[in-house]
Design brief:
Layout: H1 8-16, E1 20-24, H2 35-44, E2 50-55, H3 60-69, E3 74-77, H4 83-93, E4 97-103, H5 110-116, E5 121-126, E6 156-158, H6 167-174, E7 186-188, E8 191-192, H7 194-207
Parallel strand pairs: 1-2, 2-3, 3-4, 4-5, 5-6
Antiparallel strand pairs: 7-8
Helix pairs in contact: 1-7, 6-7
Length: 208
């Protein structure tokens, strides 16, 4: 469950069954949280639930500040980071890295093989719509048949416009074992809804 902005949403996410909680460090996102707010939320997340920081083309200075002040279990790279940059981030910070890749057609699939050689996990997302001002969290999906039955060298997670209403279908169509959601469990941008969280997890499990 990605894009939590309030400590009060942590327990609801954990109770619903979240295995990862994503904290957004991209200033143009409505789910952005400052380092101070992120630290407070991360400290409320219990041991056993992964604390993931979403960053977009962050330089070393930004990552130095983030990792020094916030207890994290993983970095999610959601920008144009090259495979070399993924390797550099892993080595510099000693944290697992999840690389996000946008998909719109079959030509985009080859990059997954390239990045799976250096990332610890992949997040397969929809490409942002033309003119979008952020790389994800746009509540759009892609043609799931493009990745139906596909397997890669590292674990992967499905994202892109998932909701309680469509996540079971998405899991069945793709064979995904992990799914990522942000806007699909919100009552307003950045405001998570406990009922939608529970409904999402229940529906995802029904799709397995």
């Amino acid at each position: 469950m990605c894009g939590l902005t309030r400590t009060c949403d942590v327990s609801a996410a954990v109770d619903a069954g979240a295995a990862y909680i994503g904290l957004n460090f991209f200033a143009r996102s409505p789910r952005y949280v400052s380092i101070d707010a992120m630290r407070a939320i991360a400290q409320a997340i219990p041991v056993g639930v992964a604390k993931v920081a979403l960053v977009v083309d962050a330089d070393n200075a930004a990552l130095d500040a983030l990792t020094a002040q916030v207890p994290l279990d993983m970095l999610q790279l959601h920008g144009h980071e090259t495979p070399a940059r993924v390797s550099e981030v892993k080595q510099r910070y000693g944290l697992p890295v999840m690389k996000v890749l946008g998909i719109s057609d079959a030509d985009d699939l080859s990059q997954i093989d390239v990045y799976s050689a250096v990332a610890d996990q992949m997040l397969v997302d929809a490409k942002p719509p033309k003119g979008a001002d952020r790389p994800g969290g746009n509540a759009v999906s892609f043609d799931w048949s493009l990745i139906a039955g596909r397997r890669w060298a590292v674990p992967w997670m499905l994202a892109g416009g998932l909701t309680p209403e469509n996540v079971a279908e998405a899991v069945q169509a793709t064979g995904a074992r992990q799914v990522d959601v942000a806007s699909g469990i919100e009552s307003a941008p950045g405001i998570k809804d406990a009922g939608l969280m529970r409904a999402f997890v229940s529906a995802a499990q029904d799709g397995v």
